[in-house]
Amino acid sequence: MKSIISFVIRYIPRKYLQLVSHFFLRVLAVFYKGKQVQCNVCDHQFRKFLPYGRKARENALCPNCLALERHRLMWLFLQKETPFFTKKLKVLHVAPELCFIERMKALPNLEYITGDIESPLASVKMDVHQIPFEDESFDVVFCNHVMEHVDDDIRACKEINRVLKKDGWGIIQSPVYDLPETIEDKTVTDPAEKERLFGQRDHVRKYGNDYAVRLSLSGLKVQENLFVKSLDLETIKKYALPDQEIIFYCEKG
């Protein structure tokens, strides 16, 4: 199972996976029946989650809604640390994750808009370098696992800062490695070399410990929130949460 999932996510473009993967995984869910873990995004229980990743992580992917560890952590953070589920908010979700779309769309307090340059799941076709909305349009912007793909991450973050309202906030997650600073080389175009240097064939940089500082160059106020450290071990185990994930919480600058 690990090798199959690793091969699929490595070589099949994400836009195609988004359309069909959930149908196959829901079939697999039958074989994972149990009550040892629970997905707090969709509330389904399993004996364990599916492995996921190029170097497959055990107990990672919910076979019902496709939420990963980071998605379950973010959902819990939104519930416990923000007014996301109660306050009237206009939300822009860039490159929306399948596990979130219908659930966020169904929240009666949200005006929820999704946007992406290629995802078939998004309602608005847009380039994050040129977001097609007026200044101060949104209360909240989510943009997760996008910045490692884009040509100019600072410009993209400037656009997010521009469309946030004065008291607006957002979450901008990316893979961050234990490196002193971000590795970037725009002369690298070979997919195999990109994978070697940046961890994935469609990545253009590998973020280091300067991630928050780097994004702050856009004008955003970026905070490193260690929310997961506030949770008890029982909760972390129940939802199979990552124990080291930093939530990069941003406010308009």
UniProtKB/TrEMBL annotation:
Gene Ontology biological-process entries: methylation
Official protein name in the record = Methyltransferase domain-containing protein
The record lists the organism as Belliella buryatensis
Please list the residue ranges annotated as the Methyltransferase type domain: 121-171
Gene Ontology MF annotations: S-adenosylmethionine-dependent methyltransferase activity
Residues folding into a coiled coil are none
State if Lipoprotein is listed as a keyword. no
Q: Which domain of life is it from?
A: Bacteria
Could you confirm whether the keyword Methyltransferase appears in this record? Answer: yes
Q: Which UniProt keywords apply?
A: Methyltransferase, Transferase
Q: Which Pfam families match?
A: Methyltransf_11
